[in-house]
Structure formats: C-alpha cells, structure tokens
Design a protein that fits this description.
Helix content: under 10%
Distance between the termini: 24 Å
Largest sheet: 6 strands, antiparallel
CATH architecture: Sandwich
CATH superfamily: Jelly Rolls
Number of strands: 9
CATH topology: Jelly Rolls
Shape: globular
Oligomer: single chain
Structural class: mainly beta
Order of helices and strands: EEEEEEEEE
Number of domains: 1
C-alpha cells in the first residue's frame, strides 16, 4: 500500500500549448509501479485553464475545490467541488477555473499507457 498527501507531490507546470495557469501532480503513476491507472491532481490559478484538446482514451474527473467549466463542442458545463465528470475518448474538451480570485483543484484518472 502507498499513501501520499497531494501537496507533498511535486507540481509541474502544464506545458501544452493553450494551457494557462495550471499545474499537474502525478499522485500515482509509473514511478509508483501503478500498472493500470495514473491519478493526477490539477491545480488551477484564478482564471487558469487546460488547453482545448482531445485524446483517444476516456478519463474520469472529480472536482475537489472551486468552480470549473468543462468546455466541449456542446458548450460550457459548470461543475463544482464534489462533482464528477466522465470524459469519453476523442471528445474535445477543456477545463477552466471560473473564478478570477480563487484557485481550483481536480483529480483526473487516466490509463497508464496514455498518461501525458
């Protein structure tokens, strides 16, 4: 068994084009010998966002803090702490912190072979 505190895991700036004010922490992943899933925490500065992107795998998200918009071709869907999202494979999407003053945090699970 492995137990970690989210804030003890080093954060890295998301370097993808279109990302702004967002960092990622790989809570569990290949370095932990996790064979199936990677658990990642994303920390958004006020007004921060991931890029508008898609990928060939689903992922699951739970919002831990703040208010976030899930942006897809169908529009913006606001979610908040305690809400969960299932993002299907190949659906173009983006996560945006809706606050200009408060941070936001979410957890994202992806298959190990696709962790990026």
């Amino acid at each position: 068994m492995l137990i970690k505190k989210i804030d003890d895991v080093p954060a890295a700036v998301v370097q993808m084009e279109g990302a702004k004010g967002v960092k990622v922490r790989v809570i569990f992943g290949p370095a932990d010998d996790a064979p199936t899933f990677a658990m990642r925490a994303f920390d958004f500065e006020p007004g921060g966002n991931t890029p508008y992107h898609s990928h060939p795998f689903e992922h699951e998200v739970i919002v831990l803090q703040g208010r976030v918009a899930v942006v897809t071709e169908d529009g913006d869907s606001p979610v908040a702490a305690g809400d969960t999202v299932l993002m299907p494979s190949d659906q173009t999407h983006q996560f945006k912190n809706l606050s200009d003053t408060e941070p936001a945090r979410l957890i994202c699970l992806v298959p190990i072979q696709h962790q990026k």
